[in-house]
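Researcher: Quick one. two chains, 412 residues in total.
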Amino acid sequence: MAVFVPINSGAQVEVVFVLGGEPVENRLWFYFDNPPFDLTALQGLADGVYAWHTANILPFLSVDLQLAAVEAKDWTTNPPSIIAVAGPPVNGGVTETSHSANVAAFVGFRWPLQLARLRRNGNFVPGVPVGSVDLNTPTAALRSALFEGYAALIDAARLFNPVLNWRWVVTSQTLAGVPRAEQLVGECIGPVREEKIRLGQRRKRLPIS
Amino acid sequence: MPFQPAIDIATTTLQGLVDNQLTILDLNWFASAGITAFNLGTLANGVSTWFTNSLAPLLSEQWSAVNVHAVDNTSATGPVADSSSVQAGGVTGEAAPNNVAAVVSLRTDQRGRSGRGRNFVPGIPNSLITLNTLDSGFITNLVTAYQLLVGAGSFLAGWQLVVLSRQTGGVLRANGLGIPVTSVTMVTNKVKSMRSREVGHGA
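Model:
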């Protein structure tokens, strides 16, 4: 089992989907400027990410994909002392079938410049509509939508309740292969540029057979 | 890894292209009367005909067969043969991304991993996939195509499709062992993944 590496005054947000009957998730990390945070603040984070995703990312994904819930966890202790969940379930906005679950659009997240050589964080975005891929290449429209959507999270996070407290961050949990005592965090400066958004593989998202 | 002989066993490598990425399907064959340069050429031509006439028509037009390369595994200096197999897939419309594959299982009368082989078939038409599920007609046609290869001398006189086992108990065998394929099946109607076929990975 993986070693728990805390972020003091940080939270992990899981955006949990269902695709083809299988659970799929994307993870994001956030830092709270004025610790400690309480359940109200964590609920503000979960609600904020839910609102951001359903407005900025989900509309460009297949109707076959259902965002089941957004769950925010206090990542200072294991198990988390407080957890907040936001919903209700909502489906993707493109009325077109999805590519199979092992096909995803990979969006890398950029570290701040002083930490630029650390391992890249990113999301393998599921539920890519068939029409949004030309053979192996995401269409320009999808790449643009994902770039703009994730870029919007930088500002949106600052307005999550309580305002001017949450920041979207990228993290590093290991150093030279050894777990750190505490995750190194850096404020995310956005997704990689559009032409770097590509298809990636998530084999384990397929149904077991 | 040093060369490992497999006496009287030939490997055919069915080469195709999709989005400028090489796709490979390997099939192994036992020669009942030994391997010569001549009968290896006959094998390459026979497999090439099957590749273009039986398999390619089931796949997307964005994929194409290119070549069949056959090698004699009896010795490191055995003969090789090639047969051009230029044929685009027969199904109009876009193919699924390169890592998406249909897995055909080659079964023998022997249990265990050594007794099973697989082919990850590329170039599946998007129109024949619903989310993760392959069209039932496509599955039937694919299994039917592979069944043409099964049997001693029934596909091509003197040749039998085999699973080539190179290890037992995690240790290399002195010689590769060919185990006759007795049936072909698809274990699942779900798509599978082959990462090395993604653009930017592998060949």
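Residues 9-197 of chain B form one domain.
Researcher: Thanks, that's what I needed.
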